[in-house]
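Hi W.,

Here's what went into the run:
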Amino acid sequence: MNLKTTASSIALFLLLQSSYAQQKLSGFSSEHAQQQQDLEARFDKGLSAAAIGNNIRTLSAKQHYLGMPRDKWVAENILQQFKSYGWDAHLETYQVLFPTPKTRVLEASYPAGYKAVLKEPALKEDASTGQPDELPTYNAWSADGDVTGELVFVNYGLPEDYEYLERLGIDVKGKIVIAKYGRSWRGIKPKVAQEHGAIGTLIYSDPKDDGYYQGDVYPVGPYKSEYGVQRGSIMDMVIYPGDPLTPGVGATENAQRLERSAATNLLKIPVLPISYHDAAPLLAALEGPVAPDAWRGALPFTYHIGPGKAKVHLKLEFDWKMVPAYNVIATMKGSQFPDQWVIRGNHHDAWVYGAADPISGLSSLLEEAKAIGELAKNGYKPKRTLVYAAWDGEEPGLLGSTEWVEAHAAELQQKAVAYINSDGNSRGFLGVGGSHALEPFMGEIAKSITDPQTKVSIFERKQASDLVSAASTKAKKDILAKKDMTISALGSGSDYSSFLQHLGIPSLNVGFGGEGAGGEYHSIYDTYENYSRFKDPGFEYGVALSRLAGHAALRLADADVLPFDFRSLSKTINGYTTDLLSLAEQMRENTAVENQIISNNAYQLAGDVTKPLKAPVAKPEVPYIDFSKLQNALVALDKTAQHLQDARKPQLPAAQLEVLNKALYQAEQQLLHEQGLPNRAWYKHVIYAPGFYTGYGVKTMPGIREAIEQRRWKEAEEQIGIAATAINRLTDYLEKTFNSIRN
Amino acid sequence: MNLKTTASSIALFLLLQSSYAQQKLSGFSSEHAQQQQDLEARFDKGLSAAAIGNNIRTLSAKQHYLGMPRDKWVAENILQQFKSYGWDAHLETYQVLFPTPKTRVLEASYPAGYKAVLKEPALKEDASTGQPDELPTYNAWSADGDVTGELVFVNYGLPEDYEYLERLGIDVKGKIVIAKYGRSWRGIKPKVAQEHGAIGTLIYSDPKDDGYYQGDVYPVGPYKSEYGVQRGSIMDMVIYPGDPLTPGVGATENAQRLERSAATNLLKIPVLPISYHDAAPLLAALEGPVAPDAWRGALPFTYHIGPGKAKVHLKLEFDWKMVPAYNVIATMKGSQFPDQWVIRGNHHDAWVYGAADPISGLSSLLEEAKAIGELAKNGYKPKRTLVYAAWDGEEPGLLGSTEWVEAHAAELQQKAVAYINSDGNSRGFLGVGGSHALEPFMGEIAKSITDPQTKVSIFERKQASDLVSAASTKAKKDILAKKDMTISALGSGSDYSSFLQHLGIPSLNVGFGGEGAGGEYHSIYDTYENYSRFKDPGFEYGVALSRLAGHAALRLADADVLPFDFRSLSKTINGYTTDLLSLAEQMRENTAVENQIISNNAYQLAGDVTKPLKAPVAKPEVPYIDFSKLQNALVALDKTAQHLQDARKPQLPAAQLEVLNKALYQAEQQLLHEQGLPNRAWYKHVIYAPGFYTGYGVKTMPGIREAIEQRRWKEAEEQIGIAATAINRLTDYLEKTFNSIRN
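Here's what came out:
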């Protein structure tokens, strides 16, 4: 064996290696896989961390909330960028309602002279802060109101907190509640308060949750300082998101609009977010029972529940204006399938400067657009149409994306292959949520992208983090045994919602995080200065996001066979069903045991006479629920998904491929239930929805799960029927597809 | 059936009821059971809550720590009380070493001008506080020292905290550490600090643990205020308790004494307890990594681990005096078995006023003595001798009781039927710990005593509390199914230690608590004013304690057959063995998985580059351990315990009863291993010991458990052999006893 032979062997080895790598691009013939990998390599070379940083700096330099001139300036800047990169781009404008504050008063009779500051101070260490006319701290969609009442501390303001208040004999009717930010989407807190008869809600940021308890505060570290306030929407978007006046339809100039009072996603009570500086004197003045351990924060006094001597006066008035929401839509037409759209989006509006939220994610998106533009200048033509979007009005309630989706619903259900969303991005670990038929696809991509810090794949780094943070040895063993990536289910909180949950368009939400924690969210301190010190100093995770989302978009645009794998969906729904069975089983056992404890009088006997606490009320026993329809539906789906997977090959004839691909990307629409979820018809997907009492947090198989959680047994069985019907519809649809490509 | 018949039936029914009640007094013939119950009813009538309150007020009116004149005054007051109740009483005095502070300086270069206050202020709301010459705040047995060094925060100062420091690359060698009170006995903290090379230790009370985080602070509520300090001993009493100069022998006038430097239970570094007022500036000045969540307290700043700019100067000097410890010993001679002693004790010395600790428990004991004295005046003579004791010098390290036990060791091993201990008492739930052969006996008593607040039995109330606070539905179901009382195992922290763990005398520790939580422990605020507001306002739990301990003492004194049931002991040891098996199994699995995670490099990959944290070091795999000797020993014990239980009847002839009873109460001595535990020969019991790294907290089957926990596998198997031998010795002993009463 001479040297030459050895060299040949090495070459062969490298070739095998590379062909092995090709096999990882599912949906591509091996020739096309090689081309696609070359394309991605060129795409990657077009990405610049510095350029991402520059965009973050430029677009977050001044505040740019929905409806203000700078918001339009940002939209037009983005528009120009798209155009300069060679994209066909335009603004698409909707007219939406958007309240901004006119009057904000929070004062109290006790402690004497109390008047809330309601203002975040400028910091000399952060030159961005303190610009003129910063948007005051407020919760958008609070009702106008002028109320005075006693104050009650309600922990995070969730239903279980009110159950505990009831045991204490404390009623919030006619009172103002003060809740901590955290544990749920903020809009849940005033909604539950309103359900319990409260006349107003204060939401404050306890230093336990994102302030000094967590770490050094800004500007020393990234955490929330004394006066920091989280702005944010409290629209009840689990009913429907988007413009409250135009549910289900695009908020075009001439759309038919509801009266504001008829909008079912607007609350009736005034709501104000405050800093812990403003909250502390009110909390310290509360009397009544000491708050239980889980309710206590990090302020240096004993947390009482109230009420106390303080009568609190809350007066809020808003300017309820119609404003234009400027979506920027850029397209690059598909060479083979122009009517198949791969959509990629990130919002551009911010509460104030919004360097992290949303500009960091947006800048990655723009960088992708730039790199794809360069590919195009060098001859690249995507097979399918790429649609890159920068949404306006996400912060007040996903307004821009929702109105666009509603306006284009029919066309999107025909054409949209998938929607890939991002939002704020930071250092850390890969996060992917979305449609589970895309789970293996995203796993392939995640295994092929290198983590900027550790130089292993972002998949491997995420798995390492899962391993280290897993709570039990059993969980660690499960992770060690796992070879594939798991993606999470999507609730709400960013612009994928209408695509996925209203139209059934396969959706993904991608980003990095976990090492960029801080307290700047929705405050004036979400600045370039802050971002570039604490979130992603070298903007390398910005590049990683561009690669992640860009490769996904390009592969979807160019795949011979679209990389949907319904075995993953089937497996995932099976898992959810197992969860639901065990949820019902546990509730049954817990209820039986708890009722026995109640009937034994144990709560009274265990109680401290100096701390009166009623026993919980016994709950009706949990019946056995018939899951069989669902279980049978899943057996069928499982089989069909396997058939189809075996049959879907890039080598199929073009005509069959075209039929197959369209069927694959439209399949998820079979999981829509036209009448939607109980009491919130806008949400039509039977597998994914935001929780009625969690907000951002997802409820998988929401119709069934929420019925069980809220002990509506008849509804649970109805919802099982609805889900089974939808799954059977999907199975039939996939089986038909399978037959059509076999024949 | 006429009315008369009906009345007879009712009478019969009542008789049956009453005879059923009699059967609950195991160890008594039914005739004697009735007599005993009558006796107990008369005893109960002799108890007065007001008298208990008066004793608490009188004996805690001035400070009375070991060695000061008031300590002697208290002993003499108790002596006079015993005498006045008709007991034969005397002082038994030992000469013990006891250091009090001469110099206490804590200062720092940063923050500038820092000098610790080291003084608890008087409160106008509590007239007891602020008397002249209150004992300064200090930790007894701290070394003299004058050290200057950087400061490192070590959480609770336990071995696992230092493992984490090692991962951070922070070494305490040559530094001063600051640890929080809590999670372990205080003496563990400086011991572990010294093991790691620290030159001094500060221990502070974080408001999270017993201050404002828990509830309103004194005098508004019972929790620890800004300047409150916990005094206390840091003698390494898990090596041996009692006078450090006379291990194993009574500290009589002429006892042979060690040089102080040769006492292996004294640490070499200076140690000072401080308030959070004094700790906060030092903690706030720390730099370095942010402390992990579990380390953080409730002070309003970010907890860093250090070190920082501060150099801390700690200078401590003590007056190492020999002082007299006055035990008060009162006896009431047994009419039938004067050489069988039922011993009841509670200490009388306090750190300052000590209303709760120890005077509340002591006052219940005195009330028992009074009521028994009244019974005696009316003709009652206990069959066995009652010995009521008030120990001195418990606070610095169980000095009085240990020296008495060591001085009388041989006699006690012959004569002591059981030792019943109490200490501070408060409102709440029954607590019983001790020798498990007495578990059913204590269960009977607990079921017959009424809880002052709820009027159900103290057993039932405890079970209700266990039910409500159980962490899982499974645990709740287990409790619901449970009919018998479980007693806990004893570690250390009060005067039972030498009886049980050094001599193998059956011991019990009894009291109430759980609703009297506060922050007064070992501070100047443990006063009558505090006690009577927060701990046991009507002193009714004082009466309940008198009933509980008094009934136990009287039943043990009068029983025909002593109520030892070795089936309970056997069952308990079986349970511990199952725990140990599962501990080894879990360690094996955890070690394997953790080592795999470490070898996967997951810690490095999951780590944040801005927060360097080394991976844990891989640990040797856990071998399979041979438990068979122990398991076989338990099978045999189980059988014999059942034989004996079947045979032990009050109807046995007197001579056999006498043999049986003596054998029963001496049986537990068979569980002593003469060479004691590894490196701490004073602790001889193979089932119960305080943990080497927990202090007060018990380690059951300590030789085996600590060997496994500390990964000394060979030692674990040796200790299994030692435990098995001891258990076999007990089995043989019981079998011999069984044979002797059969023949």
